[in-house]
Specification:
This protein is mainly beta. Helices cover 7% and strands 50% of the residues.
Length: 629
Amino acid sequence: MSTYRQHLAILLVAAACFHSAAAQNSSVLDTAQLPYYASLQSTPFGNFPKQAQESLRHLEVSGYYRFVTNYRHLDIAYPHLAETPNNIFVGDDSQIPQLSLNINGSVSKHTSFGTDLYMWTPMTGQGEIENVKGLNLGVSLYGSYSSDIGEFRVRTGGINWYSLTPFTFQTNKGYDRYSIFERNPWDPNTLLLDSRYSTFYHAGGISQDERWGQQAFQGIILEGEKLPGDFSGVIMYGKTQLNGGLSPVPNNSFGGKIKKTFNDDYISFNTFNNTSFYDSTEQERVGFNVATIEFKTRTGSILWKGETGFGRTFDQNNYNDWGGLLSIKAATVIGNRIPAELHFFRLSPNAVNNSAAFINSSLNQTNYDLYSPGTQPVLPAVASAMVNVGQLVNNRTGAELNTQIDIGPVKTSIGYHVSAEINSLSSSLTYSHPVNSLVLAHFWRWGFPTNVGPYQNLSKIYRSVYETVQITGVDTNLMLPTQPKCFNSFEVNMKYHTELLGHTFYVFYLGQYSSAQFFLSPFTVLTEKALMRTYYHQLEAYYSLSNNVVWCNYAGVERIIGNYDTEVDEITRRPKNQTGWSLATGFDIRMSRNAGLYLRQRWMNYKDTSFQNDRYKGYESTVEIKIFF
């Protein structure tokens, strides 16, 4: 050991002497030695300690804190709430966390990453075990690379929100005709408090988060742009929320597109496919295939956009027939003042894709792991749905017309829909309750149950509820209607803006008038010949009291009427005859640049005069504080 220490001491002394001599004689060093000496100074050894390389070029943390609480009192309640007419709830049962942190960073100019961390206290009474902290969307890695032949990007890991085309991988965007009185969990605080309402008036819609119109995808996505010949493309492989989610069963989805651009026009070939298994043995295989062509072009003053293709389902090695998909839109401006869009569509019942923008109303689909708790192995068809203008449904063909007419300060958006089923495949109809949709969804906290309510005919979806009614005039052998059903809908959204006592004032009206019947009609059927008639009226007013306070008001009425070809109550022997109304008021209050306080008070009353248990009456109060950072 002593010898080792002696040798080490000699080396250290020699190194010190060498360094001292070099420093003293640096002025007389030979010029040929200068490059070597300069490189020696930058070399990480000896007296020149190793320098740590930068591991991150950029790191950013942002997010929000959202406190929301509801107090509900019911004078008349559904049976499952009769014992608890008073309810206070802290948190958001739409599965939105109270604190969300968005973390983004980059390790080079070509590679970055991102994730969402959340903290959540559902307050269900289970104690500390419900204080949730964890990853929201998981960790995603993004990379990019530029070369002479194009620009390439990769997304992998975590959950990425993405869209291809409406028939392959996308969600419905609609035509921006909806109520904005109730705030969405993702709504931002704005620099100008009333810009939420001014944007809706001027632009026809409000700002949405990145999920708007996109589907959740977990896996790998490769993108290429500016390729030779003005081509671009996408390849994706992984899982969707309805085709595997986080289940360990080896379900998979894959798809992509190849796109050719011609100045402002384009054409693309697109596909999306899924294979799902009941369990990890991979013995029971089901899925679907979709392949389409999407295009956009202009001829004169008409802009053409559309998508056409085919889809099919399979079970084990039995492949069903291909079914056609067609959607063509022609948009123009009439008289240089009135924008109009004509839409023709036809979607075969054989074409099924639960990751597309259209609703499946024809075939039941296997979901994911049969044995995973809390999962539903089969995605049932939603029967014959009465939907908003713009929402597509398979097993249906029809046409739509959308336009906007502006007269002075009044902006009017109009939508017209007429369609018919291709085949008679369902003895049910479904429809929504938009006037009290959010309050009604609060009747069932956590999860999205089906076949609930006093008559087991309500199903909860995200922040809304739809109802199912049975048709009694059916073939006794097939238990199906003898002929396909037809649908009509008319929507009008009127928006008015003025100054009242020196302050901004907005008034919005949304009306929806729909019917379903066994015959084709050019307009909504308003008589007993219709199987179902739904009429919705929603009126909103927003008054800017100051730069920091907006007074918000709402009034809504809905009428839903069935005829005697639909189910009747066993006691009254009458079909559906529903009336619901709602009055609400509240305030948007700006507390600081990034913090807002939002108050809502809603009174509601709903009654079906034919089905005596289908009624509720009461009020709900909501307080929301949202802080962005």
